[in-house]
Amino acid sequence: MPIVLIGGGIFVLGLLAVIALFLLKLLSTPAARDPVDQHELQQKRDARKARFEKLLTDLPASTRDEIIDLIGQRQKIAAIKVLRDATGMGLKEAKDAVELLE
């Protein structure tokens, strides 16, 4: 019986150590280690949004209207599908484009 209690205690201490290491890693965020230039990030977002807006203006009016209507109806997945079918975009890029238009 005492061996089981000792083994259980060691297991609990080990588990607590793992949790402590996980929390330390979580709390040392990349932002603390690698400062990010917020202005540069905003410029990248603006450039990406401008590129997506230009892409929409290059689409046929019916397709563009369908995408905008789907976004207005909160059917984001359907809007992504229409955009991908019309442009051949990848899933991530089409998702980002639709989210920028929301």
Structural features, described:
- There is one protein chain.
- With 102 residues, the protein is mainly α.
- It folds into 2 domains: 34 residues; 67 residues, no CATH class.
- Helix content is 84%, strand content 0%.
- The protein is built from 6 helices and no strands.
- Helix 4 runs antiparallel to helix 5.
- The longest helix has 26 residues.
- It is elongated, with a radius of gyration of 24 Å.
- The termini are far apart.
- The model has no long low-confidence stretch (mean pLDDT 80).
What pattern of helices and strands is seen along the backbone?
A: HHHHHH
Distance between the termini: 63 Å
The helix/strand class is mainly alpha
Shape: elongated
**What gyration radius follows from the Cα positions, in whole Å?**
24 Å
Percent of residues in beta strands: under 5%
Largest sheet: none
- Number of helical segments with 4 or more residues: 6
Q: Please, how many domains?
A: 2
| Count of beta strands | 0
The share of residues in helices is: over 70%
Low-confidence stretches: none
Mean pLDDT value? 80
